[in-house]
Write a structure and sequence with these properties.
Layout (H helix, E strand, L loop, with lengths): L2 E5 L7 H13 L4 E6 L1 H5 L8 E4 L8 H9 L3 E6 L11 E7 L4 H4 L6 H17 L2 E4 L2 H11 L6 E3 L14 H10 L5 E5 L9 H12 L5 E5 L3 H7 L1 H8 L2 H6 E3 L8 H7 L2 E4 L8 H8 L4 E4 L2 H7 L4 E3 L4 H13 L1 H15 L4 H15 L3
Parallel strand pairs: 1-2, 1-4, 2-3, 4-5, 5-6, 6-7, 8-9, 8-11, 9-10, 11-12, 12-13
Helix pairs in contact: 1-17, 7-12, 8-15, 9-10, 13-16
Length: about 375
Amino acid sequence: MTKVLLDARMIDSSGIGTYLQNLIPFLKNHLNLSLLGEREKVEEYIDISNLNFISMKSPIYFPTEQIEFLLKIKDVDIFWSPHFNVPVFPIRAKKRIVTIHDVFHLAFGELYSPFERTYAKFLINSAVNLSDVIITVSNFSKSEIIKYTGVKEEKIKVIYNGVDRERFRVYEKEELEKIKSEYKLPNRFLLFVGNVKPHKNLRRLLKAFKIIAGDFKDLFLVITGKKEGFLKGDKKIFELINKDTILKERVIFTGHVDKGDLPYLYNLAEIFVFPSLYEGFGLPPLEAMACGCPIVVSHIPPLWEICKDAAYYINPHDEWDIAKGIKEVLENEKLRKELIDKGIERAKEFSWEKSAREHLNLIEKTLFI
């Protein structure tokens, strides 16, 4: 069996963590798979039987990880980095694979300090040049990688992410009541699932919500995650909320949401709103569609690629257009039903098993490149 070493240190992160959590259980049964990282952390997310571990505690991006890579990677067929923080020195692996989900650090370089920007550019270019195969998650991301690095198109393989349709599905109302009570959710709410990065565009969503709040007096905006995380990431979000009575009263932060509870939140929401400025793939809209939740998303290439005609598209740079989209989907029952039906059907085209099989085929071919 092909001997593969996979860097699993990001298994607890949002997008890349979901990627690893869904691929490893399938791949471990078809490969001689070892993980680089901390056994205790990985064990919180997946069954670790049949897995070998090589301990590595350096955080990503820290220079010490490069020293650990040199010491820990020994005599494997393939070393696989699920992010662009690759080993920059020669390693004892016959081949290298890297997954680059997006090139946000290059596309929005002005959001980072000069050092962060330079280091990210160095790592991304190292990932592209030193790897035998580059995996990415959408044709849009492929075009962006080529645009910013100049890598040859044939070196990149697009493999879509999936959705776990056993978890992300339509639930009966009785099953939802417990979660609604547990998270103290209102009867009607818009849902935002995302992190604190500026490109997620939460500030414009808040402004859009304020525009329509007077027309829907029983409607709330629910944001998954802890206030502290958003406060640390973007203090202006809270300045906006605290200065406005409506936002203070009707914007709810859930606190930590258990992984198993997220599908219920999608089910309970009136609309899932995703006004992101930049994505490589966009997992939350796909998860929302699978749960029968109508989605209002940004009209940007990667979201059109994944959602097709199963979404209502808005201009993410215009809070009035975001507000208009939300209002239209709230009020137009025919449109709402169309989005729900199309979303459920579109989500059926994505599965983690399909994604894992494509990864497995690529891994096995890589040895012969």
